[in-house]
Amino acid sequence: VVVVVGSVNADLVVALERIPRAGETLTASGLERRQGGKGGNQAAAAARLGGDVRFVGRVGDDAEGAAARAALEDDGVDCAALLPTAGEPTGTALVLLEGDGENAIAVVPGANARLSPDDVAGALAPLPGEHVVVLACLEVPVETVHAAARAARQRGWGFVLNPAPAQPLPAELLALVDVLTPNEHELGLLSPGGAPALLEAGVGAVVVTRGAAGADVVTAQGQEHHDAYAVAGGPVDTTGAGDAFSGTLAWALAAQRPLGDAVEQACAAGALATRAVGARAALATAAEVESVLRR
Ligand code: ADP
Description:
globular, about 35% helix, UDP-N-acetylmuramoyl-L-alanine:D-glutamate ligase, binds adenosine-5'-diphosphate, alpha/beta, 9-stranded mixed beta sheet, single chain, 13 strands
């Protein structure tokens, strides 16, 4: 079982020739609504692979929240603990997308900011025993992530943290993380001392994702590099590759795969996720991951 404690966003993607400057008004060439939020994307990735995935999160009591729930349920995610929240909008990301692929993003946390330690306790308490991996991101309050980490440790479950968007984390939280999955940029913000300092703080393993350069696994045993998988025809949109990576890693760990194998599967799924525009448009099935794996 993979339990995703995370965010749900309604993404409004606005296509423009260029990103407007302060005070400037430009006419956009298009508008797309997409399902987003790191948590939602991660849960969708794990469920598309065939995992038993439970989502713990909050949406507004609004049409966007209903649409977000329906999309996750369509992907097979159990949304019993996706709670409607009065008085807050569903999280929203306003994405300004330039012709050349540059973007500027404003995120309204909305209901995501209301996900509480009590919500997590209530959602995790009834879950039965074994082979559970909890996956969290930082688009929900850090106290809530901390509560999820504590609950996971208490019950002997795995805890994977995707530290995005990056922020400095309390040492007591780091000590509860089994696997941390920053990209290179997040690693820099999180830890001036790099991966070794995080291991020192008690993180079990740091898996640094490096886009088209693959991923590095850093543990007390040393460092192991995993090359990226080539994407046939080249990547179309790398948005959400990291979410597919973390969701897949949690799924593979919940299936009792050793970390090196799980990272290999995550690299394959991250590459496959870049085949189409949108974070959830090209998420891989287990058969697709299996068919491209090198080992
Ligand atoms: P994020 O989206 O969080 O910045 P990355 O860009 O590092 O994360 O992508 C996560 C993983 O997805 C990488 O480690 C890699 O395995 C895979 N990936 C991402 N971009 C590409 C790409 N252009 N080609 C092949 N694999 C990719």
